[in-house]
Amino acid sequence: MVFRTSYLVPASSNEKRGVLDYLLMLISSTIKPYFIALRYLKQAIKNKISDINATDINSFATHQDMKTRHNGNNNINFSSEVNTKSKDEILQCKAVCTNLRCDYGQESTCIYQGRRYRVGETFQQSCNTCECKHGGQVQCSNKDCTKRCTYNGKVYQEGEKFQDKCNRCKCLSSGYIQCTNNVCHCQYNGKDYDVGVSFNDGCKTCTCQTTGTVQCNSDRCGCYYKNSQYQEGQTFIDACNTCRCINGQVDCTTRVCQCTYQGRTYNIGQRFGECDECQCLFSGTVQCSNKRCKCIYNGNTYRIGETFPNGCNTCTCKIDGSVDYTTNPCTCTYKHRVYNMGQTFTDDCNNCTCQHNGQVACTYKTCRCTRKGRFYKIGQRFHEDCNQCQCLSTGYVQCTTKVCKCTYNNQLYNVGQTFRQGYNTCTCEVNGRVSCTNNPRNCFYNGNSYGIGD
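The chain above was modelled as a monomer; its predicted structure follows.
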């Protein structure tokens, strides 16, 4: 191995020493196994550094060759060449070394997957953390770094492929699922069919295509129309229209087959009317003779358009000689009684009227009050115990709120009533309370007790 370096030779002695130190440092940092020999050389040079000059450096570099033995087998040569023309010119040095691999304990770096790391340095390898150890060894954690994907409740490994119906899917490193976008079914007449499935539609055979469309054969298989089967090319009549089966489809004319006249329906060609004869034409219109006719109703004759009463109903003589009339009921039935149309009557305090539709309409006045199972008329006054009550127009009863009885020893007494309680007299007050006298029960005399009357 050859190392070359070039630098400017300094002028002062201190700078000379710096040049030699730099050269020795460069050699020692590059060829580590020879630290001992280098220290020896450096010490020898330092001992003479006070007397050395540019000429000495040139002489030393030209005539000094160091030779030593390593392990008794390998030769190590150090040679330096110094060319100096003046103290300000460039000094060039070179060293020639053997390319030996030296073992001096633990390595100071690690190489892992093509990259170099210092001892103690940590780095990431996927989801694991690695550290460069002494001896050039790399130690990593042992986590499972396999990426997974979840799809329809199932877990797949990174790169794993699987089938989803008619589509191919793959689990990506990002954790997402990538699938093809094939159409897996077709919809036909409200039903779903898988791709490739064939089915019948009448006499046709249909197949669900990968495009999601249904393709059916074009065989001529007749027509099905209003619950009847017709052959291809067959012609048939539908009411007043002519129809034909073509390529499985029924094609019919679009004639109007009925006429509507005065609320009634007539078939094409049909004739109707008494004195004024009418006919339903193919165009769907009605043509009449427009004769002026009369109407005969209940033995009476009426002109066309004439109106006349019939009870509570109104009748009209139509152009075709018929009579049209309303159907209003002419009486009302209310609480098992019959009333004529427009008749008014009373129901309790309410007024009622028999209407034209046969229904009875009444006012909604409140006519009485109910109190403890008894009925009272509006405005009627009555007593309830010691309180006075009145039936209001709202149908509610309003009473005073006097207390009418007293309760004493589980007995009821009317207001003002007096009663005996032992040697005392009690009275039921208007506030519902009982007041009693406070007579003593015994008499005491000379230390003796005597009852009342003793």
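Helices lie at 13-30, 35-47, 54-63.
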